[in-house]
């Protein structure tokens, strides 16, 4: 605890000892000049229309506004004696600088105003690493319905068994929503599922990202969600449905293994059959409904954005219920597992999802904003199991629940300094199991292969039985995050921040044991319930319960960073350093050679040394002299050591033409292994029998580390951009 307190004080001192930080915002800069003479105009009022943000130009006619939320704005410049000028369609991007220059002419007519439409900038000159950005306007135009479909078309990303950036593992990505990480510490996945209609801007950073991002090795997926409009109410509703349309025949016979002679061609059964022709034409086979609403609740004070979605797909992989998986008496006749079924076709990869999102923005004062943000999703489905294609009712069911709730305070101290404070919690739960009750008597292991006498059966399909696996795990994370940003002079945007994260994990995975009589015969029926293996058994994988041993999993992470963005006309530099502290707050066996506290291997850990000679003799090997679990607890474990990581980052961009830039970057990157690798099979329940058992997690695993280099060239040619990057 003394070490822990010291690290907290160090992190706080780092945060308070410097000014500035990163938030989910961009920056607007520019110069206002006299159109006739070209001289700078000091004291010009420059504001972002529809907000309370703005600035006055200095002696050189320049201005800067930081802390601007990503989006499209109208910027207005006004000065006594000169025409007011409005620049529309100004795109502000996350963590980038947008330049807006004004040339004001002397006012001829009272109230005269000039409107200029800003041109889209194809090449951002202050990028020092590879990234892709997609705005809400672009998302609306794309023919996609899922976030993964947007990510699929970004350079460097592949989507196969999870998202991968530049070939890295899917667990090497950090997911950020509104400035707060929502990565599930258990396996590195995203704790929530985001919807496209709720995204204001999506940023994908590949490789050498800046110091404000941590605990990632391959990339960052950063999302800013939408806020409600302050000027008017609006909303949308989208509903669509569909069905698969597959021509041909023979699909049903192929599934059931019937009429083989009819569909035999050139001596090969079902050779010319369209295997998916069993799919029904049903308008509700696949459907989706989206509803969103936004607008002011209290004019100029409170706005709201809300989103809800329902999605359902019965899937395209079917099975045929040739056999019953478990005892069923719904028809009035008891049909046990393995008995003939009704041969009906059953969809086997079904999926259903509910998701929601809300953002209430409260303008507490002209420079103080409170956002209350909530996102969540729930999905369930039944994964395809090829071996149960003729007994489909026995496959397991999956469900997934995740939500994120946070309060964000943004204080705009001035047009050059602001800070944000985030208080957040997110929750992720994943479950798998055929029946809700783990003692459901319908559980059985009647997994007998179909006889070869059935046409085309082979030995691949089962004649009944149920999936006996049970899985339940959850992650609850609490987070406190503070960031401060300040523009120091004309060239330095300095940033710093600190983050405290506490995780609370719980995990259960085991296979049920069906009922059996004394001679080992398996029993089936409503009077015979299955059992779970004892918690001290190697087959019972668990952590976070604190029941048999003190195995609570509550690791803590403290992070801090300092970064300076140096901007000149000829070059831009992003230089920073990141500090991370991780404490698993766990234990490992003091003697790795005898790790299983429930079933120790050495006699010294099984029996008491009554005579104190250091040797267990035959007289001491008695049942009444056995060491109890509680006694072993007193000396069995050693505390884990915290991990400290310091990572420097550097990126430089050189603009070479109006639409061309060269950049290079370097960084040292650390990532704590996902917590399943730290705590899986916690307790080291290694059996005394020979064989392979594992993999067992190790709470003292070292952080993963990589050094990355990148050099890139980007040049615009009108509406086209060429981008070449080596890393």
Keywords:
727 residues; 16-stranded antiparallel β-sheet; 5-stranded mixed β-sheet; 6 helices; 6% helix; globular; disordered N terminus
How far apart are the termini? Answer: 41 Å
Q: Please give the largest β-sheet.
A: 16 strands, antiparallel
Q: What oligomeric state best describes the polypeptide chains here? A: single chain
Give unreliable regions as ranges.
1-23
Radius of gyration: 31 Å
Helix content: under 10%
Number of E strands: 38
How would you describe the shape? globular
Overall pLDDT metric: 87
Q: Which secondary-structure class do the elements indicate?
A: mainly beta
Continuous helix count: 6
Q: What is the strand content? A: 35-45%
Characterization of the model:
A hairpin with a 3-residue loop joins β11 and β12 (163-165). The protein is mainly β. The protein is built from six helices and 38 strands. It has a 16-stranded antiparallel sheet that branches. Strands 3-2-5-6-9 form a five-stranded mixed sheet, with no helix packed on it. The chain has a five-stranded mixed sheet with strand order 10-15-16-13-14. It is 6% helix and 43% strand.
């Amino acid at each position: 605890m003394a070490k822990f307190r010291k690290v907290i004080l160090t992190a706080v001192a780092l945060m308070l000892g410097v000014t500035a930080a990163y938030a989910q915002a961009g920056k607007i800069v520019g110069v206002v000049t006299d159109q006739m003479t070209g001289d700078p105009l000091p004291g010009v009022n420059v504001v972002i229309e529809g907000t309370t943000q703005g600035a006055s130009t200095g002696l050189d006619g320049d201005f800067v506004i930081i802390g601007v939320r990503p989006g499209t704005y109208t910027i207005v410049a006004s000065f006594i004696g000169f025409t007011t000028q409005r620049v529309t369609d100004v795109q502000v991007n996350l963590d980038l600088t947008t330049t807006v220059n004004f040339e004001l002419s002397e006012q001829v007519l009272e109230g005269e105003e000039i409107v200029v439409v800003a041109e889209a900038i194809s090449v951002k000159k202050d990028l020092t690493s590879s990234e892709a950005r997609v705005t809400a306007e672009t998302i609306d135009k794309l023919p996609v319905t899922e976030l993964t479909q947007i990510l699929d078309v970004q350079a460097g990303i592949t989507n196969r068994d999870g998202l991968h950036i530049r070939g890295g593992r899917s667990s090497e990505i950090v997911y950020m929503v509104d400035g707060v990480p929502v990565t599930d510490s258990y396996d590195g996945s995203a704790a929530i599922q985001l919807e496209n209609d709720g995204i204001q801007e999506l940023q994908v950073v590949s490789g050498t990202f800046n110091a404000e991002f941590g605990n990632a090795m391959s990339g960052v997926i950063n999302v800013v969600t939408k806020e409600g409009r302050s000027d008017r109410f609006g909303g949308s509703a989208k509903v669509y449905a569909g069905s698969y349309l597959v021509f041909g025949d023979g699909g049903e016979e192929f599934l059931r293994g019937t009429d083989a002679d009819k569909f035999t061609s050139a001596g090969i059964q079902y050779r010319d059959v369209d295997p998916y022709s069993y799919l029904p034409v049903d308008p509700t086979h696949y459907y989706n409904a989206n509803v969103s609403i936004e607008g002011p609740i209290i004019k100029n004070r409170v706005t709201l954005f809300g989103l809800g979605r329902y999605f359902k797909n019965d899937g395209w992989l079917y099975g045929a219920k040739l056999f019953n998986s478990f005892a069923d008496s719904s028809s009035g006749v008891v049909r046990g597992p393995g008995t003939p079924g009704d041969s009906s076709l059953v969809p086997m990869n079904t999926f259903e999802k509910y998701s929601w999102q809300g953002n209430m923005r409260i303008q507490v004062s002209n420079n103080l904003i409170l956002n209350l943000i909530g996102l969540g999703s729930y999905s369930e489905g039944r994964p395809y199991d090829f071996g149960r294609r003729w007994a489909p009712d026995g496959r397991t069911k999956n469900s997934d629940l995740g939500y994120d709730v946070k309060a964000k305070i943004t204080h705009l101290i001035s047009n050059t300094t602001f800070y944000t404070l985030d208080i957040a919690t997110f929750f992720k739960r994943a479950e798998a199991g055929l029946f809700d009750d783990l003692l459901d008597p319908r559980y059985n292991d009647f997994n007998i292969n179909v006889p070869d006498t059935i046409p085309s059966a082979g030995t691949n399909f089962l004649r009944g039985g149920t999936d006996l696996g049970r899985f339940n795990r959850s992650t609850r994370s609490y987070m406190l995050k503070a960031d401060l940003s300040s523009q120091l002079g004309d060239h330095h945007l300095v940033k710093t921040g600190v983050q405290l994260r506490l995780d609370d994990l719980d995990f259960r995975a085991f296979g049920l044991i069906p009922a059996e009589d004394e001679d080992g015969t398996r029993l089936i029926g409503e009077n015979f319930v299955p059992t779970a293996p004892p918690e001290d058994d190697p087959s019972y994988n668990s952590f976070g319960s604190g029941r048999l041993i003190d195995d609570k999993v509550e690791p803590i992470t403290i992070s801090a960073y300092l970064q300076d963005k140096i901007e000149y006309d000829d070059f831009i530099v992003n230089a920073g350093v990141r500090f991370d502290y991780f404490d698993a707050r766990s234990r490992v066996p003091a003697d790795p050679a005898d790790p299983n506290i429930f079933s120790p291997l050495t006699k010294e850990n099984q029996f008491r040394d009554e005579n104190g000679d250091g040797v267990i003799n035959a007289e001491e090997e008695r049942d009444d002299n056995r060491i109890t679990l509680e006694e072993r607890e007193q000396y069995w474990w050693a505390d884990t050591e915290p991990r400290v990581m310091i990572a420097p980052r550097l990126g430089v961009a050189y603009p070479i033409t109006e639409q061309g830039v060269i950049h290079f970057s370097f960084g040292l990157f650390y990532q704590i292994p996902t917590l399943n690798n730290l705590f899986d099979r916690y307790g080291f329940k290694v059996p005394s029998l020979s064989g392979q058992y594992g993999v067992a997690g190790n709470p003292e695993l070292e952080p993963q580390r990589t050094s990355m280099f990148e050099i890139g060239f980007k040049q615009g040619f009108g509406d086209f951009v060429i981008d070449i990057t080596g890393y």
